[in-house]
Amino acid sequence: MTDGTAHERHMRRCTALARQALANGDAAVGSLILDGEVVLAEGIEAVRARQDPTAHAEMEALRVACTRRGSRDLTGCTLYTSVEPCIMCAYTIRLARISVVVSGARGADDDHAISGHTVLSDPRVAPHRPPPLVIRDVLADECRRAQRPAAS
Fold it and tell me: Which of these is catalytic: 42, 45, 58, 84?
């Protein structure tokens, strides 16, 4: 696992990706997946841009990471995301066997059941896939600021 300084560095990359998504007219969410210290994939929210309700930043990063790894099993990988994963993303993270999830800002609802936190941690959700280690609130204020348009 990575130390706090590395978590912050990777989360800053997520906030840069989030700003890119916002500039494209989507929700400001950025995500990346590391295999050790190697960036395997990046994703930005693209729901509006693609007219695809599954084009969340985490889903985009997961698709690329699985393709690059040649497997749906991402054991040993760490997923960083500027906003806590939603239920859809959290369940897919579990299916992909991501080992660590590091998030920045909490979801707009600030409700763990809705934000996906319980999906990530509840062993009953995907009984044959271990829950990832969840690290929350890394650069939370910075991640929240990235969700707002830049002042002109």
Answer: 58
